[in-house]
Amino acid sequence: NFKLIANIKDFSTKMQNAHREMTKFAKKTEKMGRNLSRNVTAPLAGIATLSVMACDKQANAIAQVEAGLASTGNQVGITSEKLQKMASDLQKKSLFGDEEILKNATAQLLTFTNITGEQFSKTQQAALDLATRLDGDLKSASIQLGKALNDPIANLSALSRSGIQFSKDQKETIKKLWEAGRAADAQNLILKELSKQYGGSAEAAAKAGAGGIKQLTMSLGDLSEQFGK
């Protein structure tokens, strides 16, 4: 009997020790679970926040474009969807993101209602090239070009501040075309000279140096916007 009692006590002690070890293991497992949850959830929450912010930035840029279309009665003759596609295409050949193009080029140029259709598209490209070559901001370049193309007679000379020069004959031709109601022809002459002096600047920057990294960053930004949406 004494031996049986001793065995029972020994078994009980082992069970108590096993219970303590299991309790310790359970606590460690619970702590590991909490840490794993925090380490996984926190980064995901951060990514989600950044994605929503990126989506919001894009949405605000589109909203400004659509407000411009509405306030001008879509004088430009191009839908919001097509303007967004233009911005996306321009992003692929420049260092400017599509949301920046929409906000600082597209929306700004929409206020100049004499610039429409094909000339509008060319002016956006010219603004990117000018801002890139002169290492300036896109908004200022867009407004400067917008003023000149919207009323060349009054504002063409203002382009000289950016080093854009027109000969006396060119100025006279532009004036005659404008006064004859041939606005598109006058604008094309200006845009042709702009292309001659600054054309290709934006695309060259996108291909040089760290341009490829910038392009990758913008592509990841587009993906982030989709996550945010």
What key phrases describe this protein's structure?
229 residues; mainly alpha
Give an account of the 3D structure.
- The chain is an all-alpha fold and 229 residues long.
- Helices cover 79% and strands 0% of the residues.
- It has ten helices and no strands.
- Helix 4 packs across helix 9.
- It starts with a helix and ends with a helix.
Low-confidence stretches: none
What is the distance, rounded to the nearest whole angstrom, between the alpha carbons of the first and last residues? 76 Å
From N to C, what is the helix and strand string?
A: HHHHHHHHHH
Mean pLDDT: 86
| Residues in β-strands, percent | under 5%
Gyration radius, rounded: 32 Å
List how many beta strands DSSP finds.
0
Instruction: Please outline the major beta sheet.
Output: none
> What best-fitting shape do the alpha-carbon axes yield?
rod-shaped
Number of helices, counting only DSSP H or I runs of 4 residues or more: 10
Proportion of helical residues: over 70%
Structural class: mainly alpha
